[in-house]
Design goal:
The chain contains 2 helices and 4 strands. By secondary structure, the protein is α+β, with helices and mostly antiparallel strands. A 4-stranded antiparallel sheet has the order 1-2-3-4, with helices on one face. The protein is elongated, with a radius of gyration of 21 Å.
């Protein structure tokens, strides 16, 4: 009986550990929705995908436009956005 109880307790402990590591669905805020909308609308010619990433703890975001070559995604343009007191502004753009 002690072995069975120990096994159950160990299994529950492992399940709790796995549950903590399971990624949660991302909820988009108003800023991310606006950035995604504009990023998709103003896609450079030839770009296949758009990826938006916010920097946690900072008012910055990156927009990556990629193309597909030989089965790999290649970043063709990287736009850095910074949030000011009034709006999101383009800080830099690299091709």
């Amino acid at each position: 009986m002690k072995e069975r109880f120990a096994l159950i307790q160990l299994s529950l402990t492992l399940l709790v550990g796995v549950a903590d590591e399971t990624p949660r669905p991302v909820t988009l805020d108003k800023d991310m929705i606006a950035i995604l909308k504009v990023a998709k609308e103003f896609r450079p010619e030839g770009a296949a995908t758009v990826q938006v990433e916010r920097v946690p703890g900072k008012d910055m975001a990156y927009v990556r436009y990629s193309i597909r070559r030989d089965g790999h995604d290649v970043v063709m343009t990287l736009v850095t956005l910074r949030k000011t007191s009034r709006r999101w502004e383009v800080e830099s753009c690299a091709r």
